[in-house]
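Regression test case RT-17, inverse folding.

Input:
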């Protein structure tokens, strides 16, 4: 499920018609939506990331990666870099540059 899209759909419906009934219904939908999320899903929504993107984000934040984690990051990097169609130069990063959080 795309949680960011679900949230945006609820807010868009609210913005279309702001009568009292709509405001109350929107608040109830948002409350139900948030209540239905577990901690990791909430974190994904807060970061604006899908489940897969959040997993990669977490790997990138780790101090040290194991061999399997390193391969996951490399594979995701390949997929993302070439999916963008422009390669690594489009990111503004230099080869060998470190990311710091």
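Golden output:
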């Amino acid at each position: 499920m795309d949680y960011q899209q679900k949230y945006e759909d609820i807010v868009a419906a609210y913005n279309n018609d702001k009568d009292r009934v709509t405001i109350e219904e929107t608040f109830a939908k948002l409350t139900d939506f948030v209540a239905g999320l577990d901690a990791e899903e909430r974190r994904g929504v807060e970061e604006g990331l899908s489940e897969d993107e959040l997993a990669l984000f977490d790997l990138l934040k780790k101090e040290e990666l194991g061999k399997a984690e390193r391969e996951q990051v490399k594979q995701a990097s390949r997929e993302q870099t070439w999916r963008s169609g422009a390669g690594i130069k489009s990111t503004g990063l230099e080869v060998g540059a470190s990311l710091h959080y």
